[in-house]
Fold each of these.
Amino acid sequence: MGYQLTYAEMKRLFSEITQAYDVWAPVVKKGEGCFSDTDVIRYEKISSLDEVSWEKKSDYSFKEALLAINETLFYFTEDKVTIPAEPQKELLIFLRSCDLHGIRRLDQIYLKNGFEDFYYARVRRRAKFILMGCSESCQTGFCVSMGTNQSDNYDAYIRMEEKAVFIDTKDEALKQLFSVGKETDVEPDFVTENHEKVTLPKKLSPAVFQSAIWEEYGERCIACGRCNFVCPTCTCFTTQDIFYRDNKKVGERRRVWASCQVDGYSDIAGGHGFRQKKAERVRFKVMHKICDYEKRFGYHMCVGCGRCDAVCPEYISYSNIIHRLAKEEEENEK
């Protein structure tokens, strides 16, 4: 059972919500795209539902609401280390079904991968998720193929229509807030078919690591890392120590997003570097998403959002690579 509210009721309630929560949602950023005179849709804190991009999928994922691109881990002096205070407000994050499945992947890496990341955990426990329905498929997504087109583990679902707002809530605090509306049945909108369809390889042989596919795509890759930065499940980061100019013995350590595709990411002490060739990096990313991660945790890392296909300046299609691997597998079995 859900609720139907008028715009006036929803506007008043949302004003109350922003007093108690930091609300993150996809917003159209005019003129801030990668190319001249283009827009980009990415996440930021909002104060009104009018700011939300309801119709189009965000170019960047929800991830930066939970994991800051540039996060201070601690401040240091000669004899003292200070951890930044944790956020005081709870978070409400608007996202779509594929991204909601991405939460499970982030939790797996940061909370259940042999340790619990202190910084992620203290933000994650404050987060609630508002599902945004998908009335039609985006152009590059293949969530149906990945089984991520539907979700039921949301805290609330919101659908904006021409004359009313429809809400389904599972969280008790949110339910009390929205119960001022008229009770009605509310079912989330989920796509059942994508423009893009992906066939996943079922059992890749060791020969896949020598496939000519990797060299082909590696020659086109420019190692910009965009595919990683827009991905809702990539978790790689590096650390930086910042020393203040007025006192070189005082500073801070930061955790900064990184990419397995960029030059120098796999370099280690002594000057040695793993995966020097771009072909090796492309192979590593793809195999991690559809093979290695599944072997460890029992499900694929990729959620089929299709952002990597959309953002690549060299038009490298991750989904097409998967298609070709599945086709090679089929031919090898004959």
Amino acid sequence: MKPAQISQPIAAPSSWAELPWGEYYREALEQHLQPWWPKMFGFHLLKLGGLSTEIATNQCAISHQVNVSSQGENLHVIADPRQLPFTAKSVDACLLAQTLAYSADPHRILREVDRVLIDDGWLILSGFNPVSLLGAARLLPGLRRRQPYCSRMFSQTRIIDWLSLLNYEVLYCHRFQVFPWSRKKSGWNTHLPLFGCLGLIIARKRTIPLTLNPLKRRLVKPALSRALGATKSYRQPPG
């Protein structure tokens, strides 16, 4: 497995229009996010990265929405996503549309987002699927330096592993847009979602551990067994 952190940064597009079929990607992503926006409540929504700022979020119940990126247009805050100028636990939701795909250190971005998110805050992640037509096209030498083939394509399983280490509960995980050049809903998205070019993960930050510590369970069980055994021998009649 390739390391998540690399030495050289990747040039990130500031608009979906800079990507081949980028508007189709944006429309498909907005369509899958539409039923989730009314479920999110709070005071502040961060949209990290130039592509995130162009995602329509007018149906989101969070009214104060802040566009954050190191470069681009229509920004409210110019900052590096790895060093956000916000206090800890001050943000209710974060949208990262392809942000990890153009990051040299995605772990650092996730840790920074985790710092600013409140408990039970929402995290929305999208990225390119390596097991798709886009991933297959990266094998062609002439395309590896072009957009979006030059981006980093992490599998959803790998991203979910990163989120589990930060104690996030994944509520939704889906792949779609099998054919990047199509705006229509096709049967391929229904029958072969594994090969969708886009992947979407919606998760929430949890404070209570999602799994019990097996070591603690092993330590407690013998003590209970001995106590029960002593009780049985005490109650046993003599002779």
